[in-house]
Structures are given as structure tokens and as C-alpha cells.
Amino acid sequence: MTKFDLCILGAGPAGYAAAMRANDLGKTVALVEAGRVGGTGLHSGALSSKTMWHLAMDYSRAGKADRGFDAGKIDVSYSSVMQSVQEAVSERRNLLCHQLTHLQSAGMELVRGRGRFTSTSTVQVDGEDGSREIHADKFLIATGSRPRVPEGITIDGKRIITSDHVEDLEDFPKSLVIVGSGVVGCEYATIFGHYDRTKIYMIDRRDRILPFEDEDVSARVSEAFESMGVTIHRSAKLQSLVATEDGVRYEVECDGKLKTFDVERALISIGRVPNFEGLDLHVAGVTCDARGGIAVKGTRTGIPNIFAAGDATTDTTNLALANVAELEGRYAVETMFGENPPPVDYRSMPTIMFLSPEVASVGLGEQQARERGIPHRVASIGNHLISRNIAMRNTDGFIKLLAAPDNTILGLRVVGPQASSCVQGIALLIELGGTIDDIARCAHPHPAVTEGVQECARLLLGRSILKPEFVDGVRLSAFSPEL
């Protein structure tokens, strides 16, 4: 038996960040991982899919003829794209592994294999080199998540796939149906759509894609998809989806009719489920809740020395994001070793959707604020009014800022190029209780897309250089639950 201060199950975003934070505190750490270091934060997920997105956007941009040049016919091969993706993933993975190797002398050990609890203070790790028992004072469950698969559909990894299999494809599919219209499904629709090698269909059981987002955001992304030739089955119910000799056949019920389609591939993208099978949580007394994740308060389970972070947990935020997992991993370590950190503030968690156009958000959107009955004011500016967007020759999209009646910042939505550069400062202001006056008075670089955020704040304050009565693309509105 080997004794550690902390044993972490899973070396994805939450587990790796937790291990590094524990090292900062001088703790000995066993980091247990059966698969690849970095988890979905690198492989078949955050970094790999975002690399694919950037490459697809570069390809699309190079083919435009409105920039003073005409590149003509541009060749592309799926294998070459995937080689570039793997190079990016390898760079990051090698960095993570390099650190682990050099921290061995400081009590950090990467233990290869699958762990399972044998008590509240021990785990058994079964690997290719045999079994090993690890004893620790504290444990962190950070085993992440995997794609959800609906009943009645068999994933074969070739014709019917999940995001775990996209990188294994040999070529661009000639046709692809994407089941699900959430973030992941829309990201892959964007990627394949920009390469213009794949006829794409999307099955959306609701009346619009990205149903959790504001209607104007969803509408703008839908317009972009349709301009790329994507067919969206709205308010559709999938009746069957099966592999055939030549590809995939699916039946959907929409508009009161049953329709049948044949495609080459199907991508199942209906969310993710926590990974904790085989951990023998019951042996340690760790419980799950009705939503299927490990039950936690903050990052504490019901067992004093066992914590959980990242996608393996269930909480009210429902944010399966790498940055959230990292924050929770750090928070768990600081909590278990008595650092008394402030709670993770989920209100100010920024997110990016790698679509076309790019979408970034932080805080509340209009839809969320209305559903919660929160009074607010809204200012929205089209990107055609922002100098940086004009200079980029890309004025697609808009910026929208929400504020409470007392001018406290409630949220931001940015749709368009470099959207992600706008949200971090607003995230900090939301966490600090900042106001739109703080945005308006802060010096912004010029030209920058963040100036659109500033102009939204000035609109709400009545100080904007843009006068709504004379300029198209400016919107001011207010909501009160009493009205």
C-alpha cells in the first residue's frame, strides 16, 4: 500500500488542475488515469474540436473574394486537417505530461489504471501492469463525462458516431445528420459546413436550435446554417435511426408527416452523462442524486474526506465546461486542505460557442432574466456599427448588454468575430458587482470589438455617440415582471 495526502481519480481538466494546486500546497498526490492525460479537455473535445473550428474558419475565409485577393480553388483533405488537430493536441498533452514527470520528486505520481473504492480511505487501481492499492487522506473524484446515447440507437463508431469518433473518420462525410441542436452539435455543423464537402441535416426536437439561448442569438446562428445549406428539421421527433449497408437511414416526424432520409454518417449529440461506472462509489458511501451525477454541496460529497468536481457531479449550474471543471478542482483542493476559498461564482462564468458567427456569453440573457422575473434593461448594437468589425470586413452579428434598474451588470451576449474577447472583463465586473458606468468610463483600445460593449453601456446611460432614432441596428428595451 502507498500513502498520499490526496488521490485524484481522473486527469482531465478538473483532476489535473486539482493536482497542480495540491502541489502548490506541498501535498503528495496520486493522479489516477486509465486513458489519456487531459481528458475531454484535450481529446475529442475542447481543444481538438476548437482546433478543427479554427482550421475550418481559416479555410472558409481564404475562399472569400471580398478581401482584395482571390485564392482560387483551395484543396483540403480530412487526413491533413486531422494531422494538424493531433499536432495541436500533442503539444498541449506533452506539456501536461512533462510537468507530471518533473514533479515526481515533489510527491506527484501519475498512476496508470482504473481506480475503484475499497473503503473511504483506499482505492484499488487495476492497470496493465497489475493491481495496486492506494491509501490517501483525501480523495477527489474528477472522472468527467461521456456522450449521452439515446435508447434504441447503436453506436458503431463508423457510421453512427459521437464526438468521440469524429477524429477517426477517414474523410469528410458526403452527408451527415446531427441528432441534437445544442452546443456540440452546432459546433460540428459549423465545422463541416465551412468545408463545404458535406450535406448536413440537423434534428431539433424544439422549434429552434440553441433553445437555452436568447431568440435573437438562435435566429442569427440558424440563418448562418441555412446560408451554408444546412437543413434543420425543427420540432421534429426522431422515430428511428439505423446503420445500413451504405450508411445510415433515419425517420423523423415533423409537420405532421413521417419523412425518411439516407445519409452517409450520423452524429449523436444530445448531451453528456457523468463517468463513474466501476468506481464502486457505494463502497465509500458516496451517493448520486436524481439527475444522475454525484451529489455534492459545493464540491463536498456526503463523505467528509471525499470530494468531487467537474462533469462527474450534478449541480444547479449544469455547466459541463473545462474552465468550470478547473475552477471546481482548485476549489475542492483548497477546501479540503483548509484554505477557506470563496465559493465558485457561477453567475460570472463566461462561455464561448464556436459557431459561425462565434457566440460568447456571460451572466444572464434576456430569456433567462424574463423566466426568472428579473427586471432589466437591454441595449443591443449591430456589428456593422463597430469600427473593428468594419475593418475586418465582417459585420455579421451584434452585441447585447443587460443591466438591472440600478445599473448593475446582469449579462452580455456577443455574436460575431472575436466575440470571446468581450466577455472576460464583464465576467470580472459581474463578480465584483460592477455597473454599466464602470464599462462606460473604462478606456478601451481602438479599434476593438469591445468598444461595442462600451457603446451598449453608454446607450443605457443616455451617453452614446449612436442615436437610436437616426441609426439602424440599435435597440433599447426594458422588462419588468409587473408589466
Describe the fold and architecture:
- The mean pLDDT is 93.
- α1 (13-24) runs parallel beside α7 (322-336), α2 runs antiparallel to α3 and α2 (46-62) runs parallel beside α4.
- Helix content is 29%, strand content 26%.
- Strands 1, 2, 3, 4, 5, 6 and 18 form a seven-stranded mixed sheet that branches. A six-stranded antiparallel sheet has the order 20-21-24-23-22-25. It has a five-stranded parallel sheet with strand order 8-15-9-10-11, covered by helices on one side.
- The chain is built from twelve helices and 25 strands.
- With 483 residues, the protein is an alpha/beta fold.
- The termini are far apart.
- The protein has three domains: 2-147 and 273-344, FAD/NAD(P)-binding domain (3-Layer(bba) Sandwich), CATH 3.50.50; 160-270, FAD/NAD(P)-binding domain; 348-477, Enolase-like, domain 1 (2-Layer Sandwich).
- The chain has helices spanning 13-24, 46-62, 78-102, 183-195, 215-227, 281-284, 322-336, 366-371, 387-392, 423-432, 436-441, 450-461, and strands spanning 2-9, 29-33, 108-112, 114-117, 122-127, 130-141, 145-147, 160-161, 175-179, 199-203, 231-233, 237-243, 248-254, 257-263, 265-268, 272-274, 294-295, 306-308, 313-314, 351-353, 359-363, 376-382, 398-403, 409-415, 474-479.
CATH topology of the largest domain: FAD/NAD(P)-binding domain
CATH architecture type of the largest domain: 3-Layer(bba) Sandwich
Task: Indicate how many domains the architecture comprises.
Answer: 3
Q: What is the helix tally?
A: 12
The poorly predicted ranges are none
CATH superfamily of the largest domain: FAD/NAD(P)-binding domain
- Total count of strands: 25
What percentage of amino acids are in beta strands?
25-35%
Determine and state the CATH class of the largest domain.
Answer: Alpha Beta
Estimate the helix proportion, in percent: 25-40%
* Rg from Cα: 24 Å
End-to-end separation in angstroms reads 66 Å
Which shape, going by the Cα principal axes? globular
Biggest sheet record:
7 strands, mixed
- Mean residue pLDDT: 93
Structural class: alpha/beta
